[in-house]
Structure formats: structure tokens, C-alpha cells
Amino acid sequence: MSEIDSDYAFWRRFPDESAAVKHVENVCWPEGVRCPHCYSSSVAAVGNAKPMPWRCRDCRRHFSVRTNTVFAQSRIPVHTWLLAAHKLSSSRKGISSVQLAKEIGVTQKTAWFMLHRIREAMTYRGGLLGNTVEVDETYFGGRERNRHASEKTGLGRGPAGKTAVVGLKEHGGSVKAFTAARTDRSHLSAVIVENVRRGATLYTDGNPGYNGLRGYAHRAVSHSSGEYARGVVHTNSIESFWSLLKRAYVGTYHYLSPKHLQRYVDEFAARENTGHSGMSMIRSVVVGAVGRRLTHGQLVS
Q: How many Å apart are CA 11 and CA 37, to the nearest integer?
């Protein structure tokens, strides 16, 4: 199957709603239609296919390919959902809800809701990273001098009052990134232990929070001394990921609230892990949508 990297290719692959629904069904039910409620394969097509085209003979419940996914209870066509996922995946620095609304013909509020549900489907945890893994942290938040008086921390420059994100990039492999309440030794150690296999080699900067990790080979470069690479030891790969995310922060989204920051981080990690290829990303979104729900109330509460 050819990759979808342009709007023209997308429309050739998915010319209408039936083609989009068929693709999602093939991804979600590779061995045939199954009931998402009881997982029975004893199902029957419903004469009037709207809105639930299938009925389970065992649990007697109606369902569609949207059931038990982030697309559930949505009146937006499946084709529009896939088009939105394609737009998001093909935009290297993301796409704003205002721009997406113009391109797919929905309101800005609807586009904002759709984007967050797609990002929810992009959440990737996967297996443990191994071999050689770069680890680094960065911070998101406005400058102290630009904040309203009621929001000033009084702590001056630096990460105070900002949201930390810890990233891990395996050489030749995947990237993972997580928002963190703190970046002290205990928290950094917990992130590494939960996501990196024991015995792996870690490349970090000179942050003392990475010192004393047991079960790992640790190599560090001293950025404070102007050392950014020592032979093969560097953190350039994860810092390249930060650079792209920060450019999207400034140029596309302008503001990333701490509440939703993890989903934006997941968006960029998913795009990095699929190699920015359209069909891989669309498939990843469809697979990741299963078993997840994100309501409007959860987003705005």
C-alpha cells in the first residue's frame, strides 16, 4: 500500500465515506467484523445501516466501527476524521484548529475537539527502549516578564513556574516524552526505569539528576563547559525533537496549557515515530483510537 503524503494521494486512496469506513473496518477488524462489546464474531448487518450498521447475535447490541473508540458518538463522517488525521500528520509543525477548520469545513470549536481526540489516539507508550538512549528535559511556559502580575512567580529567570517535559530517544528507534511535575533525581530515575531496559547506555547532559543511576551505563556531555559532543556521546537527537516542538509552540500553537501539553507532546512523538508518513500515521491513529474515550466535558473541565 502506498504512503499518503499529499492531499492528492489522500483523495485517491479515500475518495468517499464508504472507502474511509472500509479502511477503518479492515484495520480494526482484520479477521472479520467483531462486536466491540463482547468480541463475538457472530454478527449481522442491519438493513437500515444508520447509525449502527451491525448487530451482535450474542449480546444483541448494535454497533459500528466507531463504537469503543475516540470517534464514538460523533456525527462527523469517518472520511472527515481521516482527513483531519492526514492534515495533522502531514504538517511537520502541527496545524492549528483555526486552519484545520478552514481546510475540512467545520467550525473552529469542532476542529479543536477533533484534534485533541486524534492526539489522544496518538498516545504511544510501547515497549522499553534499549541499546543507546538519549535523555534530556526541557521546559514550556512564558517568560516571567511577559506574565500578568497575578501570574508572576517572583523567582526570576529559569524553569520556575514552567512545565517540564522529559524526553527519551533511542538511537535508530522511537522517542518517548512525558510531562513531569519535577526534574529531580527521583523523578528522572523513575521515568528512565519505566521506559528504558536495564543494561542500556544513557547519554545525557551534565544535569546532576542523572547521576547515580543503577543498572545503566551512563555517559554525559557538559553543556555548561561548551561541550556538546564527545565522540559518539551527545544529546543532539532528542534536542532536535525539542527544537521542532518549540518551533510549533511559537509558530503554530502559540500557547500550550499544562493541562493539554501531554497530548501535544504525544502528537509530535507519534509523528517522529512513524517517520512523518501519511498512511502509517493514519493507521496508527485508527489503531490507537480503539478502547479510548475523550469527551468534551473532560477537555474543558
A: 32
Q: Is the pLDDT assigned to residue 255 strictly greater than 80?
A: yes
Q: Give just the sign of the alpha carbon dihedral 253, 256, 261, 263.
A: negative
Least Cα distance to 156 among 148, 144, 140, 139 occurs for: 144
pLDDT band at 155 (very low <50, low <70, confident <90, very high): very low
Give the burial string for 202-239 (b: 16+ CB within 10 Å, else e): bbbbebebbeebeebebebbeeeeeeeeeeebbbebbb
Alpha helices in the chain (DSSP H): 7-13, 17-28, 78-90, 97-104, 108-121, 185-195, 236-248, 261-273, 278-289, 296-300
Distance CA 207, CA 148 (A): 31
Q: From residue 140, how far is each of 125, 162, 165, 243, 247 by CA, in Å? A: 22, 5, 8, 12, 12
203 forms bridges with which residues in the sheet? 134, 219
pLDDT tens digits, residue range 34-50? 999 999 999 999 987 67
Note whether 101 and 164 are within 8 A (CB).
no
Residue (of 130, 139, 132) closest to 242 by Cα position: 139
Instruction: List, for residues 98-111, the tens digit of each pLDDT value.
Output: 999 999 999 999 99
Strands 175-180 and 54-56: unpaired
Whether the pTM exceeds 0.70: the reply is yes
Tell me how far CA of residue 295 lies from CA of 71, 168, 181, in angstroms: 10, 30, 25
What are the grid coordinates assigned to 281, written together?
500515521
Q: On the CB side of 82, how many CA atoms lie within 13 Å of its CA?
A: 30
* Of 234, 224, 225, residue with least CA distance to 201: 234
In single-letter form, the type of residue at position 168 comes to L
Residues in contact with 47: Cβ distance below 8 Å, sequence separation at least 6, in sequence order = none
Lowest mean pLDDT among 145-149, 248-252, 277-281: 145-149
Q: In terms of Cα–Cα distance, which of 235, 214, 207 is closest to 132?
A: 235
